[in-house]
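Q&A log
Question type: sequence-to-structure
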Amino acid sequence: MNNELKTDYKNSLDFWNSAYKKESQDNSFENNQNWKELAPSEKFIKALSIFSNCEKVLDYGCGNGWGSIIMANLGCKHITAVDLVKNAINSTLSNIKFYNSEKSIEASLINAEWLQKEETNKYDGFFCSNVIDVVPEEIANNILKEAARVVKPNSNLIISLNFYLDTNKPSSRPYELKNNNYIYREGILRMVTRTDQEWNSIFSEYFNVEKLVHFSWPGEPIETRRLFYLKNRK
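Response status: OK
Response body:
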């Protein structure tokens, strides 16, 4: 990864750190008394239920911990929730306490090398939401390669991605395009846009792609976001 992308990646982490600090100040989780309301779509509840009987699941890039809390309430025995952003972990720790999930969820701030040091075949499930497609390609590929190593053979993975932005069409959101598919807003790397087929090809290098489900966040009229169901190879 060249120095420009390294700088862009650091700036992106700083952006998300600020975003989670603002979120923690808003105490948004207190408006969601029911843990099911944490999911951006009911399709997430169905997707995460695949981990209900798992002993150890890794929530990589956990953000505010909403996915971990849902998995814990669905019956997953233990979730390791990690993020590279300090305020995300602070928010996660506060939220798992609010939902009385401390016994099931272990939240930790990590660095970029953490996943490489995890034991092989340690986890029997892997969840990752809006991470793989917001980081430089080299980092995304390394996360996928290491996920295939630390997850037990024939175990399930759920990876959630943003929508595909066709850069050949006009967009209502101003952005700067670099390297053909790197989307920047106000100088911050916000997304690496790829089609469903392109992501399918990338995931197929490491996993068996079981299915793809499209969903939308509340208020979005069209289901364009992606949930990939993957199976680690035997």
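Response note: The chain has one domain: 3-26+42-232.
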